[in-house]
Amino acid sequence: MRRQFTIWALGVLLSASFANAAVLATVNGANITSDEVNNVLMEGTQGRFDSLPSDKQNELRQRIIEGMIAQELVFDDAKKSGILESKEFKSEYQKLADRMKTQLAAKVWEQQQFDTIKVDPKEVKDYYDKNPDEFVDKEKVHARHILVKTTEEADAVIKSMKGLSGDKLKTEFIAQAKSKSTGPSAAKGGDLGYFPRGQMVPSFNDAVFAMKEGTISSDPVQSQFGYHVIYLEDKVVAKKMSFEEVKNFIEQRLKMDKFKAFMEKKMATLKSKAKITYAK
């Protein structure tokens, strides 16, 4: 069952997760925190950041941090050049302040309305019991790969590790991934982290889920990116998540549903009482 939430509603859920913000960078005394970066990432990916591959997450996170550093550098230079005292800046700042006052008041008002919504524990358990398919932790694997341009290069990599097993195979694979792979995960020894069936391109997906833990692919795996040699580090079978694991998530989902219904009714009432005219 797919749900859509407003940007504000998503922010309510995220605020608790990023309460303990760490300083990721400091620019001329101004801190850039994990809280700020995480919020930009979640908004930019519409809440899907955690579902991205680990190498893509790291790439996006670094891009956001560098962008925020650039913004601080520009702001610092703007202050030194007297921009903050200019008529143009003050005029635009006042316009922004007026808009923000309306938006902030609306946000605080919505938060107050949201806090009045209650969910009965029985509703939470009932939802869990009636929607078992939603709470299955899918089968997933933890894999590494070495990406090269030609099948000959991939064959050579596979041949070089023939006869290795256990820790020796893993150590050698990581070393070759760092030195030979052309993929963005090369610096991490080709580590792709854990991912479920269907997340990778079909040829890669079919190959890796057919492998045994602690082995490498016996043949190169071709995709639109090149030729892959895969090492399967771990495999986790699908399992149903317990009620204790998901009850907080269900409660928030139901609360959001109730809040959405409440807001639709509330806005209809406010609109019926207001005098609204539309430009022709």
A few lines on this structure:
The protein has 280 residues and is α+β, with helices and mostly antiparallel strands. The protein has helices at 7-17, 34-44, 54-80, 87-115, 121-130, 151-160, 166-180, 202-209, 243-273; strands at 23-27, 30-33, 136-137, 140-148, 191-196, 215-216, 221-223, 226-236, 239-240.
Task: Provide tags for this entry.
Chitinase A, domain 3, 9 helices, five-stranded antiparallel β-sheet, alpha+beta, Helicase, Ruva Protein, domain 3
CATH class of the domain at 139-237: Alpha Beta
Tell me the radius of gyration.
25 Å
Number of strand segments = 9
How big a fraction of the residues is strand? 15-25%
Task: Describe how the helices and strands are arranged.
Elements: H1 7-17, E1 23-27, E2 30-33, H2 34-44, H3 54-80, H4 87-115, H5 121-130, E3 136-137, E4 140-148, H6 151-160, H7 166-180, E5 191-196, H8 202-209, E6 215-216, E7 221-223, E8 226-236, E9 239-240, H9 243-273
Antiparallel strand pairs: 1-2, 3-9, 4-5, 4-8, 6-8, 7-8
Give your account of this protein's structure.
This protein is an alpha+beta fold and 280 residues long. Among the domains are: 1-85, Helicase, Ruva Protein, domain 3; 139-237, Chitinase A, domain 3, CATH 3.10.50. It has nine helices and nine strands. It has helices at residues 7-17, 34-44, 54-80, 87-115, 121-130, 151-160, 166-180, 202-209, 243-273, and strands at 23-27, 30-33, 136-137, 140-148, 191-196, 215-216, 221-223, 226-236, 239-240. The strands form three sheets. Strands 4, 5, 6, 7 and 8 form a five-stranded antiparallel β-sheet that branches. Strand 1 (23-27) and strand 2 (30-33) form a beta hairpin. The protein is flat, with a radius of gyration of 25 Å. The relative contact order is 0.11. Residues 1-19 have low confidence and may be disordered.
